[in-house]
Amino acid sequence: MGDDRRWDDTLFAGAAPYYARGRLPYAPGLAEVLARALRLDGTGRLLDVGCGPGTLALELADRFAETVGLDADADMVAEAARAADRAGLAGRTRWVHARAEQLPLGLGAFDVVAFAQSFHWMDRDPVAATVRGMLRPGGALVHLSDWKDEPRPVGPLPHPPVPQDGIDALVRRHLGPVRRAGRGLLPNGTPGGESLVYARAGLLGPERLVVPGGRTLERDADEVVSGVLSLSSSAPHLFGARLPLFEGELRALLRETSPSGRFSVRQPGSEAVLWRRPEE
């Protein structure tokens, strides 16, 4: 998606089957921290905008009467619906295939609206203004991301770390030196400054919550490959007919790094920034 914010429906094309297996989980205890801060009691409604395969929505669904997940990628929505069914949550969740820019879509009012590592893909000012109008007075918007300033623990790991530098070099060799995103390029990465956007929308905040990570997780080669293919910058469609070649080279790199096929990663912490609609 370029600066003109025209939606690119290939942004995550083909990535949905890899997402749940490849992405690292949120920090342990995140749901409990949010439940305390938002006073969740099993009532009310949650809207997860850019829900992907339902990762956050399903983690919070038992703390609301109804959870609605919305995503612009049809395959992500289908994955979320299947995951909800497996978790026994189909009766209290709803999944909508639509862009955030199409809201409100008659979805009604919500007590909490969440953007979990998704807001940067949207036309942010109009989306924030629309979402403010969908929040009940006193309702909260939750902006969730990895905790980027988390102190990194030191010490030996039981398995080799994922060779991220080598993976990045391999992706560049196949896709070029500038980060890919759907049909376009992101030479400067995704936009920041979301606090200014939320403030312009008339929301009150921020209230920052940090949940430390730091646990050492074990990942196998299939999980590492899935993580790479779950990214917009290395989504399967970008490789075209060369996808099997890329995956073969990626697996060879992983075997060279860890003959056992096991890797150790540090789980990232989670940072949740809360913004509230004023009481009226």
UniProtKB/TrEMBL annotation:
Organism from which the protein derives: Kitasatospora saccharophila
Q: Which domain of life is it from?
A: Bacteria
The chain positions of domain Methyltransferase read 47-139
Q: What Gene3D superfamilies does the database record attribute to this sequence?
A: Vaccinia Virus protein VP39
CDD domains given in the database record: AdoMet_MTases (cd02440)
> Which InterPro entries does the UniProt record give?
Diverse_substrate_MTase, Methyltransf_25, SAM-dependent_MTases_sf
The record's annotation in PANTHER family points to: METHYLTRANSF_11 DOMAIN-CONTAINING PROTEIN, METHYLTRANSFERASE TYPE 11 DOMAIN-CONTAINING PROTEIN
Q: Per its record, what are the GO molecular function terms?
A: methyltransferase activity
- Print the keywords alphabetically: Methyltransferase, Transferase
Name listed for the protein in its UniProt record: Class I SAM-dependent methyltransferase
Q: Which GO terms describe its biological process?
A: methylation
